[in-house]
Amino acid sequence: MEKITSFTINHLKLEPGVYVSRVDHYGDTAITTFDLRMTAPNREPVMNTAEVHTIEHLGATFLRNDPAWKDRIVYFGPMGCRTGFYMLLSGELTSKEVAPLVTRMFEFIRDFEGEVPGAAPRDCGNYLDQNLGMAKYLAKRYLDNTLYGIGEKHLTYPE
Questions:
Q1: 21, 41, 81, 153: which could join 35 in a potential S-S bond, CB 3.0 to 4.6 Å?
Q2: How far apart (Å, rounded) are the C-alpha atoms in residues 84 and 31?
Q3: What does the DSSP 8-state code read for residue 146?
Q4: What is the pTM of this model?
Q5: Other C-beta atoms lying within 10 Å of the C-beta of residue 135
Q6: pLDDT digits (tens, 9 = 90+) for 15-35
Q7: Is the dihedral of CA 8, 13, 16, 20 positive or negative?
Q8: What are 45's strand-pairing partners?
């Protein structure tokens, strides 16, 4: 079997960033998959499931309510390795084009107060597995260390 695209990226050199993972075409529609890498793989601790789950709930809620982007959101969810998230958008887009959206989303998560949307038994299959405090901490860390002032090194996969 051939390796899938995400397994061909050198994770030993990969830093936190916003990367185009792939662009798929379905008829006339392009879908761009973004790798929102929050931790350096194999060099930093992975995120725990509770904060990943909270980021997923808050991020999906933010994206699907953003007036400019909501009609282009296909999916937002965690990577199995727990080092980041995938965000799929309709259209052929660049990391630079979506970096402001990603920044606003993580500012929303960092600043969020109140009940996590969808964190109720009727709405979620594992509603108790949430950690808003750590989600906010990780959002702030990603903003401060990566998103604010993001440059080409963190927008393009390493060779």
A1: 21
A2: 19
A3: I
A4: 0.96
A5: 26
A6: 999 999 999 999 999 999 999
A7: negative
A8: none
